[in-house]
Write a structure and sequence with these properties.
mainly alpha; single chain; about 70 residues
Length: about 70
């Protein structure tokens, strides 16, 4: 179930549907509060809401610092 929820979250994240992605990742955390990938993607969703990606975004997260 967790894997299916995460996959849904990832798909909606890639489609830039931030609200639905947030919902899916929060459901993952409700199932497993220690799910680090879901926590990470929730942080990314919040960042992308504040600073939307450029047109043609490929959903790849580029690290800018070590």
């Amino acid at each position: 179930e967790l894997r299916e929820q995460f996959e849904k979250g990832l798909r909606t994240y890639q489609q830039q549907d931030w609200a639905q992605a947030q919902t899916q990742f929060e459901r993952c955390l409700a199932s497993n509060p220690f799910d680090l990938p879901s926590k990470l993607f929730l942080q990314r969703v919040n960042t992308l809401r504040l600073t939307p990606p450029a047109k043609g975004w490929d959903s790849v997260w580029h690290l800018t610092k070590k």
